[in-house]
Amino acid sequence: MKRPAYLILLILFPLFLHSQNLLTAQWKFSTGDNPEWKKVAFDDSRWVDAVAGTPWENWGFANYDGFGWYRVKIEIPVSMKKEASRSGGLTLKLARIDDVDFTYFNGTLIGQNGDVPPAYECRYDADRKYLIPLKLIRWGELNTIAVRVYDDGGGGGIYGDEISLEIAGKSELFRITPVIADEDRVFTNIGQLDIPVELKNNNKSSIEGNFRIVVINDFSDTIAISTSAVTLQRKSSVIRNHTFIKPLPGIYRVTASFSSSGFSSQTKFNLAVEPEKMSSSATCPPDFQEFWDETKRQLSAIDPKYRLIKADSLSTGKRDCYIVEMQSFGNVKVRAYLLTPKKPGKYPAVLTVQGYSSVLQSNWTFPDDDVVSLGLNIRGHGNSRDDVNPGFPGYLIEGIEDKNDYIYRGAYMDCVRAVDFLFSRPEVDTTRVAVEGGSQGGALSFVTAALCGKRIIAAVPEVPFLSDFPDYMKVAQWPASEWNTYAEAHPEFGMQGILNTLSYFDISNLAPMITASVYMAVGLMDETCPPRINFAAYNKLKSEKKYTVHPTMGHGLTNEARELKYQFLREKLDIGNAPE
Predict the structure, then answer these.
(1) Lowest-confidence range among 259-263, 375-379, 539-543?
(2) Is 555 known to be catalytic?
(3) Are residues 249 and 154 in the same domain?
């Protein structure tokens, strides 16, 4: 998955019966950001037509990252008021939004997922479903929906199929919630797994129906199904439990659903059982070590030609900012943002490496002022596209048919070159250097720690990518689809040829080389880089290690996760105690 810009939508809604969706796909937008845009009185008539349900890159805003505002105006007929009053209001569904949204109805905030910088929290994989209270609705008049969106990189905007405005039904007042004692939903040393689920009826009438639990593993194999009849009185709740005997190590996806006459409701959640014992299908090529030794030898023969360009507009009161240029593997130019404390001295250093397709900026770097922070854009990303720029999609298959030409060979060396740069700097305490990043950056954190050896003392990979490729192709859809499409179009090379090349770049094969202390963060609901592939690399580490699982998070983690990462790095680098 992750720069300002803005977007707005005007939707003129046909008046259907209350049981139908009131929204159409007629949208309008405009770039820019203004808090006035949430207001009913704002005139959005001059904005350009857009397409609802697909990223804004697909309809005219290629490579656009930042803010966007969506607006909609609709007359809600008085004839709907009686039924809406019985059900508690209207329900607005906005599918998913990449990455963050603040959703307003007639100027009032009715829901939010994620947060914007500097407290950035990505929630691109969260389903948006907001209840519009009766008191906000102007019956028989125009009503305004405004959605403020922030996209940090890659695709942006509202995407998906379930975009609707409807009368809230019984399902909105019926809750299905797992009540699992283990807060991280990770279970170890167990003979049986209990899955208790609370059903809560907040409707004004009793409900009879069937409760069903389906458990599958992350390969989509059905493991267990249980069904029971349930009667819930008005304003009451009950707990139903499913017992899973002797579960094998793995990630389990649970769908708990309730169906009754006229409505249904469901919730999904994941559980991890002994994740440190999960097996991996990845294999390591016999010449793996030789391949990387030769690659590093070739890098060392290239003059880095370091060049620093002062960026006064990006500097702060306590740190100077520079744009760094350097020659990397294949004599490819890459760039990074360097922040150095203004006070002379020796300081610990943190290298930040970025996610797939994202554009790393200076404000992504480590926040503490008493740290040298370097934010790297690997080749083909951000401001490192001069010599290599296959685009997205296209990046993952660039040079795939030869391990020597594959794009990640150079990208991995870009990370090593960035560490070379840090070790060339007089202000860096070279005994205290760390690396961190999420998604592709999580993979690159593994890579940097592995290929730089003892020069890196701490690494923080979050939801790491590029791991356990044979299983990854089975448990994830995107961006694995890029490799699958290539294999179908080139049957003479095929998936086996792709896997052979990728085995040289699999971080689970690099993990045993790491000597640094590693702290990994996992989103248990992650569909982009599922926990299975995270642990495939983690389980092969031989150095000091620990992990945290965030049970309700997908590929975008919380501010809490960010603070845990910083806490780990501050401890390992003894930040705040630089020698004189």
Answers:
(1) 259-263
(2) yes
(3) no
